[in-house]
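Sequence only, no structure available. Ideas?
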Amino acid sequence: MQPRVNIETKRLALVLPSPSMAPRAVAFFAQNRAHLEPWEPPRPSGYYTESWWRERLERGLREFEADLSLRLMLFWRGQPESPVLGTVNFTSFVRGALQACSVGYSLDRNLQGQGLMTEALRGAIPYVFGDLGFHRISAGYLPTNERSGRVLRRLGFVVEGFARDYLYIGGAFRDHVLTALTNPSAMAPRGL
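Reply:
I predicted one. Tokens follow.
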């Protein structure tokens, strides 16, 4: 199955992955487990198995078709068989008068500090605002995750608040900085 979304930047290809990419997903998350765990919720049983990821990727395709999420994996541009470099997930789609979603992302520990996540999000955001027609993208991050905060500021996300005990990470509910980016050229939602 060919990916249904393929966004290219100078160095990256962001694709909606097929279930056949499950081995590469497992490899990415297993190799980056210690790097990502401090920033993410606990993983479900089976998370680091091909069968779990095959089902997750299949569900991602169904969610995209149902207008519920857009879950992308990052690869080197022009190298479709490269390892997974990271992920960019747009989730919690809300239509109607709000036209909003949330974004979360992860990047291989060995690729930090090279501007790749900023580049990936700069490629994906126009697709989410243009092709998908969203007006607002929200993102939250742990106050101690300054690297993520810098990425969001660089992209124009504005701090809108602080959520106490917002998300369960690392064995406790953790505070988050809440940010958002709005589409200044968004059209009025259809059908309202």
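The longest strand covers residues 158-169.
Hope that gets you unstuck.
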